[in-house]
Design goal:
Blueprint: H1 2-19, H2 22-44, H3 51-65, H4 74-95, E1 97-98, E2 101-103, E3 110-111, H5 114-124, H6 141-160, H7 164-180, H8 184-200, H9 203-211, E4 214-216, E5 224-226, H10 227-243, H11 251-274, H12 290-301, H13 326-343
Antiparallel strand pairs: 1-2, 2-3, 4-5
Helix pairs in contact: 1-12, 2-3, 2-6, 2-12, 4-13, 6-7, 7-8, 10-11
InterPro entries: Znf_C2H2_type
Protein name: C2H2-type domain-containing protein
GO molecular function: zinc ion binding
Length: 344
């Protein structure tokens, strides 16, 4: 029976991989784990007459199943503690800085290099400077996958609902993951997004920044898209109009198209609205994924309790955040602060 289920699931995975987008496949896997965990919780007994309290209680138990709470994330706690300790050491060293050199408060010896000054304090005066712990190992591959998947889902939903506060809150975690995976461009972008809203901008400007984090082009609920996507749509519209000119392209024609594209589109929309012209729909019908999820849930429950599921292929799994070097991250933050002080 288990072999048949394994064969069916492998076939299902191949079909999903070939026929459906990767994002949809990841969402199906996430839904399968959540549904399976809910069934485990309901079997343990979790009944309540109040539907809202029932859903909240189920959700909390599912979160506890996979240790999805931020406080349970050992890597985040480690990074926070390391950064606080390194910052405290840096403040002590900065207090002994005189002009362009460091002067030891215990023996009065001067150093121009911070590295040699640290060695002097540790070797001569037996100071204990904090050393970041990078040997932490986490093998909970399922919990980490669900944490990242739900973070991605929540971020997409925050942009659709134009919830800037939630987008900025999620940006803290996304910045850590980009730091771990060495995505420099997105790491800097998310860092500046966080610093703008928390410290650089005033209260009013920060509120406007979060309020205008996405734009709605078609109206309706959950139809907002990020501003950079809206810019890409506008650029593609301009390119499409330019391509119709063939060899007659020029700077003046491109300038005129840039200035009139949005105006022409607005006039077209008004004419369609007044004449009650129906716009042809280009959206595809949603695929029914309930059958796929049911097969995945059936296979997962054959493994026993979901919170104890462990896959042999991920025995050497290492959590992405565990590779972050707190000392390097602290130095990077300091460099970004110096850049901000210089240019802002």
């Amino acid at each position: 029976m288990l072999e048949n289920l394994t064969t069916k699931l492998n076939t299902l995975l191949i079909v999903n991989y070939l026929c459906r987008p990767h994002q949809q496949f990841l969402e199906d896997v996430t839904d399968s784990y959540i549904v399976a965990a809910c069934l485990d919780v309901m079997e343990e007994g979790c009944s309540n007459k109040n539907n809202i309290e029932f859903v909240e209680k189920i959700s909390q138990k599912v979160m506890d199943c996979f240790n999805l709470g931020v406080t349970e994330n050992s890597s985040i706690s480690r990074i926070r503690n390391d950064l606080e300790a390194i910052h405290a050491d840096e403040q002590k060293l900065f207090a002994m800085r005189v002009n362009d050199h460091y002067q030891c408060a215990l023996c009065g010896k001067c150093f121009t290099s911070l590295v040699w000054f640290k060695k002097h304090l540790t070797n001569k005066h037996h100071w204990k400077l904090h050393q970041a712990n990078t040997n932490e190992h986490c093998n909970n591959a399922v919990g980490q996958f669900l944490f990242m998947s739900l973070l991605f889902r929540d971020t997409c939903d925050s942009y659709k609902m134009c919830d800037g506060a939630r987008s900025v809150c999620n940006a803290h975690f996304e910045w850590l993951y980009d730091s771990a995976l060495k995505h420099s461009k997105y790491k800097i972008w998310l860092w500046r997004m966080i610093t703008y809203t928390l410290s650089i901008l005033g209260f009013r400007e920060s509120f406007e920044y979060k309020w205008n984090i996405s734009v709605n082009l078609n109206g309706g609920i959950r139809n907002n898209i990020p501003n950079d996507n809206a810019v890409e749509i506008q650029v593609n519209n301009i390119k499409r109009e330019l391509n119709t000119q063939g060899a007659n392209k020029s700077y003046e024609s491109a300038k005129q198209i840039c200035m009139t594209t949005q105006v022409i589109h607005a006039i077209k929309q008004n004419l369609m609205r007044t004449s009650r012209t129906a716009k042809s729909k280009s959206t595809r019908p949603e695929a029914d994924k309930s059958g796929d999820i049911m097969k995945m849930v059936e296979f997962l429950r054959q493994k026993g309790a979901i919170k104890n599921v462990c896959w042999n292929s991920f025995q050497n799994f290492r959590e992405p955040l565990s590779v972050i070097n707190a000392e390097e991250l602290h130095a990077w933050i300091g460099e970004q602060k110096r850049i901000a002080n210089m240019f802002m």
